[in-house]
């Protein structure tokens, strides 16, 4: 049991450091102000990249071998379009991704189709196409790695990166 005690002490110290850093990060806003009274409903300043990420959502998911938008994806893209039409000073990058199954070439093409369908939807909702670029990563940048549907479903996505 003595060998467990130093490990617990290290884990507790690490947890304390993480907590202190998290509290410090939450106390600041993007403009270097006090962070009091200027936060949006999602925790970021209105019009900030953080607000987009937390309040709107930066990714939509796809079914296996599909680039069709699901009702959930459409709801997220509607929120993205509204935000982007309100805050027109941002450019965005749409990243298309696929799960690990299939060849590299197939997944690059699938990621490109997913990116294109997202761009087309946002443009149909009034977002200026000149503000949007796309890139397909195929299966090269997974967010979850395992040989199971729980990971594959997280990797079949398009991510909107606010720049």
TrEMBL record:
Segment forming the signal sequence: 1-24
Keyword Cell cycle among record annotations: yes
Membrane disposition: Lipid-anchor
GO biological process: cell division
Superkingdom per UniProt: Bacteria
One GO CC term, this protein: cell outer membrane
Keyword vocabulary terms for this entry: Cell cycle, Cell division, Cell outer membrane, Lipoprotein, Membrane, Palmitate, Signal
One Pfam family cited in the UniProt record for this chain: OmpA
OmpA-like domain span: 49-163
UniProt keyword Signal, yes or no: yes
Subcellular location: Cell outer membrane
Principal location listed in the UniProt entry: membrane
Gene3D superfamilies: OmpA-like domain
Family according to the record: Belongs to the Pal lipoprotein family.
Purpose: Part of the Tol-Pal system, which plays a role in outer membrane invagination during cell division and is important for maintaining outer membrane integrity.
Subunit structure as annotated in this protein's UniProt entry: The Tol-Pal system is composed of five core proteins: the inner membrane proteins TolA, TolQ and TolR, the periplasmic protein TolB and the outer membrane protein Pal. They form a network linking the inner and outer membranes and the peptidoglycan layer.
HAMAP family reported for this sequence: Pal
Protein name as it appears in the record: Peptidoglycan-associated lipoprotein
Native organism: Devosia insulae DS-56
């Amino acid at each position: 049991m003595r060998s467990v005690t130093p490990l617990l002490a290290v884990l507790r110290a690490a947890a304390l450091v993480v907590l202190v850093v998290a509290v410090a990060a939450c106390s600041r806003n993007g403009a270097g102000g006090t962070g009091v009274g200027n936060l949006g409903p999602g925790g970021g300043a209105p019009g900030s990249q953080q607000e987009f990420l937390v309040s709107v959502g930066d990714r939509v998911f796809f079914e296996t071998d599909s680039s069709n938008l699901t009702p959930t994806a459409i709801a997220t893209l509607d929120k993205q379009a509204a935000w982007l039409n309100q805050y027109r000073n941002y450019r965005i990058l749409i990243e298309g991704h696929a799960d690990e199954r299939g060849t590299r070439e197939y997944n690059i093409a699938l990621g490109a189709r997913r990116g294109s369908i997202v761009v087309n939807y946002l443009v149909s909702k009034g977002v200026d196409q000149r503000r949007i670029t796309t890139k397909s990563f195929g299966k090269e940048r997974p967010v979850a790695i395992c040989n199971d549907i729980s990971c594959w479903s997280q990797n079949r996505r398009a991510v909107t990166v606010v720049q």
